[in-house]
Amino acid sequence: MTVFSKQQHDILSSSSRNKRLLLAFLATCAFVGFTIYCVTKNTESLATQISLVAVLVALISYGSVVLWLEASRGELFSPIALFSASVLAHFGVTGLLYPDPDVFVSRRNYDFLVPSIFYSFAFVFVYNIAGYAILQYKRHSRNGNELTAWGGRGVYIAIGILLLIGVSARFIIIDWNVYLQTSLATLEGARHIKFIGTVRQFELFPNYAAYIALIYAFSQFKQHNIKAYNFAMRVGIALVVFNLIYWLPTGKKFPIIATTILPIMILYLYQKRLPPLRLLVVAIVFVGALFPLTHAYRVSQAQAFSGRNVDDLGSTLAAVGEAMVSSSSSQEMGARNRTFGRLNQNEPVAGSIRIINDGEADLRWGVDYANVMTNMIPGFLWPDKPKVMYGNEFGHLTEMVQRTDPYTAISVTLIGESFLNFHIAGILVGGLLALIFCGIYILGRCGVCKETSTLLYVVATPTILYVGASFALYISSMIQTLVVVFLVAKCLEVRSSRRAAMMARSRGPAWANSAPSPGTGAA
């Protein structure tokens, strides 16, 4: 074995550090050069080129550093990492790949591209500052005999009930012919069928059943109960496959992505590691392919229902199939079939800034955030409840939707909505979002059962990731869902002392003396 002197060790360490610094410098230069190339290739004004390069480099560099720091801390799926990654993808990467004015529906919105990216940067910066402050909260764990964990029999009863309700809701969705993402039946049905929102929430229950099975499996693995782990894991995998089979024909990429990614997240939250590389590559390729494929599929849906309607799902799928065959080589589909183009949320934010600065719309002064309470009241209790969505009107104002189109809605986005309400002070809404999302993340530190706090965070994750959401609609839906999921999870909890006795009866008295107590760690 070679033994180095302290001086030699210092020289080697210094050399290794210099190599890393050199590689980082070269990567930075390459990134800046690529950014300059992308921007100058498509933009016109020199001032626009310089400012766009500056804000893109700042946003992408900042987001990348945050992700690297979170990953190095074993917090790759923290609310800070998830929200930063989402903003990075929706505003930074897409701004780099699509700086062309022709990508924008309205050239007037393109003139506000630089302010929109800068505002997004400031928004996520405030979110992260507030998030880091909230995550510093620590509370001493309760005594071991007061800890709780999920009990086995109750877990499978809950899974069965969720499946029964969820599958029934899915049959109703199919029967009403509002199964696909895009069709006249869906557009009109979603507006005129009573309780469609409630049924849509029930539609997700089989997904929650899968998460419960996987969380229970990993918790049993940590307690060395391999038999229970194997059975729960098989149930979880079967439910994930069942959900993918249901969601794939809809053309709704977000539920498909959630069904694919959230099991990986559950694995990471429990074991602080990602799945095997081969499985991870398959998942990434699958998610990446979803964007162009679902876009082509939805274009075919729109073409299939142009000027006509159908009454049942069979006729609907047949019409979509005909449209896909007849238009598979059309220039329109090829031009719009872009992987990253569907992620681009820069125009809604730019449009929000433009219509406020040009005086075409008045500030909403927090109406969208007060509407959370309005939207949480069930429709059967308030039949004439006012709508909280204004995506179609917003599309008309920002010139992203034709005035004659009464259906198409443009998502305002969480960031654009904050500007519509409070102008530049809207970046403080980032702190409010951090309080909500990070508060859910640290429930495990506040005495909530480990499995329950993990389930709540997993269920909330799609809302954290979807920056294209509207605050009132998505936050109110998230709160309603979390209340239901929390009540279900609480029914599964048993005290650790009682659980130890249950496990001792099932595995013998020798195990009872060495049974580990469930941990409390942060979600």
Automatic annotation (TrEMBL):
The keyword Plastid does not apply. This is Oligosaccharide repeat unit polymerase. Keywords: Membrane, Transmembrane, Transmembrane helix. It comes from Brevundimonas staleyi. The chain crosses the membrane at residues 21-40, 46-69, 76-97, 117-135, 155-179, 199-219, 231-248, 254-270, 277-297, 422-443, 455-473. It comes from the Bacteria.
